[in-house]
Amino acid sequence: MQVYSKLADLMKKSNYSIQEVHKRTGLSRSTISLLRYNKVARIDFASIAKLCELFHCNVGDLLGCSAKKLA
Prior knowledge:
Blueprint: E1 2-5, H1 7-14, H2 18-25, H3 29-36, H4 45-55, H5 59-62, E2 63-66
Antiparallel strand pairs: 1-2
Helix pairs in contact: 2-3
């Protein structure tokens, strides 16, 4: 199983840049970039909560799970 981020889709839908998400959530630009490009190894609950609040979504809208490993 592979967990992946759907942040890129949410950002595109809301027309938010990495800088805009940073300003609105207080998360570091590097954390947002790693999530956006699915390069992150782990994320804490507080970060997930901030992103879900910003995008008015639930965890399933932010993170997905795939049976096959992503490249």
